[in-house]
């Protein structure tokens, strides 16, 4: 490809030079002949000799001019075309041979090619006048056409030599430059670079995080579609690339990352009413800071994802509890079978089935949503394993919601509150609220009561336990993310409860109990399926 381009450039240059320089060589020789002829025509010696018919002085003078100017001949003729000078003195007095003097005899300068006694020549004809302006004759200065063609050929070879030298230098420079560029591009060919850029663009546009990159001067060099979307939602629009990041998004403070070389992780920024989590890092090339990059995502989207994961973990926990209780019952049945206690086994199975049917019946009568009903069955099994009695209030009622998403938020709320209650009573739930260790001697049994009360588009959810309670000083702190008295990496459950309550635009508070224990009360809007809320 490069060779073809070089060849094409050289061909164009050769055509240009051939059409400019070579004609200029011929024009230069023609101008030389005309200049010599004009100079001779102005000499008084010629006008005097032509007037008096004396050719000796003219012959001697033109012979000197011919030798000193390296031309083929200088011929002077009168108005009858009779020579007064010639390189061959024997030709003096004879008519001019070769023609072309007609225009000059009429007083006009002319240039032409012709063949005379000295061969083929390029001739310049100039009229000769006396002091009164009367034409006396013509001066002819001639150059050998062989010499003209030789000079033209020399120029052609000069042009060729220049172009060949340029081609060699260009090829050598192109080779060195190509090697240098290839080293800078890590040995990749243009096709590889193109593929890499396409893959990079596809990856940048496919990820769910906004990306902005800047150079050393703080100018934006790259921004992906997700970044455009988030910034547009925040009210920032217009051309982006090559703008200063400090003018486009000053709160990002990427120029400080350039100056310090230190990145920042998960920084929360408010932009046009949107809460963003931003991470920024310097970009280093060969150990030097060449720019900086920032990645960011809508914090609300991350919170939704966290809540979904929390809901999934609650479902999985309920299923594990149910499976564990089922395995325990199978072990009892297997042991009684091996011992041959068939009557006792029959009574055990009947009692277990009766209790299970009673639980299912109570839950299905009071809890109309099948997802919440299945969830509570799992919690009942887990409470029994932990030696805790989980009671569903007799007046409890939860209709099926108009929006299924509400149930997922309620499961997050009820699930985390039940887990905290089990933890407070000494069960195995992942409690968060920092109650003291339960004194088993204070109560005959560990109880948790769950109640749902629906009325006129509002739903109350109450979770009560007979544990040690929560100190008054901690009641505002327990909902903060990360707060827990149970060790590190805890303090998430009640924080998620508060987030879900806020999302449902409800209220959450802790009731003041007369005796031991704690009661959480959640009040949220709730649209029941098939009902109109006025």
Provide keyphrases for this structure.
alpha+beta; 14 helices; 534 residues; Heat Shock Protein 90; membrane; 20% strand; five-stranded mixed sheet; Beta-Lactamase
Task: Explain the layout of strands and helices.
Blueprint lengths: L1 H40 L2 H9 L3 H13 L4 E6 L23 H4 L4 E7 L2 E11 L5 E10 H40 L5 H17 L3 E6 L4 E4 L1 H9 L11 H4 L5 H7 L3 E8 L2 E12 L2 E11 H41 L2 H25 L3 H16 L3 E4 L11 H21 L22 E9 L2 E8 L27 H11 L3 E5 L6 E8 L9
Parallel strand pairs: 10-11
Antiparallel strand pairs: 1-4, 2-3, 3-4, 5-6, 5-9, 7-8, 8-9, 11-12, 12-14, 13-14
Architecture overview:
There is one protein chain. With 534 residues, this protein is an alpha+beta fold. The chain has 3 domains: 1-152, Beta-Lactamase (2-Layer Sandwich), CATH 3.30.450; 209-298, 2-Layer Sandwich (Beta-Lactamase); 365-426 and 445-525, 2-Layer Sandwich (Heat Shock Protein 90). Helices cover 48% and strands 20% of the residues. It has 14 helices and 14 strands. The protein has helices at residues 2-41, 44-52, 56-68, 102-105, 145-184, 190-206, 225-233, 245-248, 254-260, 299-339, 342-366, 370-385, 404-424, 493-503, and strands at 73-78, 110-116, 119-129, 135-144, 210-215, 220-223, 264-271, 274-285, 288-298, 389-392, 447-455, 458-465, 507-511, 518-525. A 5-stranded antiparallel sheet has the order 6-5-9-8-7. The longest helix is centred in the middle third of the chain and has 41 residues, at 299-339. It is rod-shaped, with a radius of gyration of 54 Å. It starts with a helix and ends in a 9-residue tail after the last strand. The model is unreliable at 428-443 (pLDDT under 50).
């Amino acid at each position: 490809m490069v060779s073809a381009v070089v060849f094409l450039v050289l061909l164009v240059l050769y055509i240009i030079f051939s059409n400019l320089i070579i004609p200029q060589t011929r024009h230069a020789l023609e101008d030389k002949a005309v200049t010599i002829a004009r100079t001779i025509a102005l000499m008084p010696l010629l006008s005097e000799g032509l007037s008096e018919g004396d050719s000796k002085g003219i012959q001697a003078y033109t012979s000197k001019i011919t030798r000193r100017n390296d031309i083929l001949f200088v011929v002077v003729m009168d108005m009858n075309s009779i020579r007064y000078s010639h390189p061959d003195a024997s030709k003096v007095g004879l008519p001019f041979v070769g023609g072309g003097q007609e225009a000059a005899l009429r007083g006009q300068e002319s240039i032409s090619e012709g063949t005379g006694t000295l061969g083929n020549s390029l001739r310049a004809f100039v009229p000769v006048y006396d002091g009164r302006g009367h034409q006396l004759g013509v001066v002819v200065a001639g150059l050998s056409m062989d010499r003209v063609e030789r000079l033209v050929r020399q120029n052609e070879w000069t042009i060729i030599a220049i172009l060949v030298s340029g081609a060699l230098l260009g090829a050598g420079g192109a080779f060195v430059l190509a090697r240098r560029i290839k080293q800078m591009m890590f040995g990749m060919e243009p096709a590889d670079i193109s593929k890499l850029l396409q893959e990079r663009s596809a990856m940048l546009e496919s990820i769910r995080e906004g990306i902005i990159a800047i150079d050393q001067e703080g100018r934006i060099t790259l921004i992906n579609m997700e970044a455009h979307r988030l910034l547009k939602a925040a009210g920032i629009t217009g051309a982006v690339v090559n703008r200063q990041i400090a003018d486009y998004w000053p709160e990002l403070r990427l120029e400080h990352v350039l100056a310090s070389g230190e990145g920042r992780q998960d920084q929360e920024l408010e932009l046009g009413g949107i809460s963003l989590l931003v991470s920024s890092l310097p970009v280093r090339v060969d150990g030097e800071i060449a720019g900086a990059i920032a990645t960011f995502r809508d914090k609300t989207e991350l919170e939704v994802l966290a809540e979904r994961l929390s809901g999934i973990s609650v479902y999985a926990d309920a299923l594990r509890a149910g499976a564990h209780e089922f395995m325990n019952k199978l072990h009892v049945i297997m042991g009684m079978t091996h011992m041959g206690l068939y009557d006792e086994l029959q009574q055990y199975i009947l009692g277990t089935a009766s209790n299970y049917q009673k639980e299912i019946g109570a839950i299905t009568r009071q809890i109309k949503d099948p997802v919440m009903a299945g969830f509570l069955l799992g919690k009942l099994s887990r409470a029994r394993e932990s030696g805790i009695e989980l009671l569903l209030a007799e007046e409890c009622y939860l209709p099926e919601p108009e929006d299924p998403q509400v149930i997922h938020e309620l499961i997050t709320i009820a699930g985390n509150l039940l887990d905290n209650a089990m933890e407070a009573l000494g069960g195995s739930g992942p409690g968060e609220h920092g109650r003291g260790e339960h004194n088993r001697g204070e109560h005959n049994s560990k109880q948790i009561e769950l109640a749902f009360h629906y009325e006129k588009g509002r739903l109350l959810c109450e979770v009560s336990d007979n544990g040690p309670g929560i100190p008054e000083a901690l009641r505002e702190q327990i909902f903060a993310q990360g707060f827990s008295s149970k060790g590190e990496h805890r303090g998430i459950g009640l924080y998620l409860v508060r987030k879900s309550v806020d999302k449902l635009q409800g209220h959450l508070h802790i009731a003041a109990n007369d005796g031991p224990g704690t009661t959480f009360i959640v009040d949220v809007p709730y649209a029941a399926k098939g009902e109109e809320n006025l």
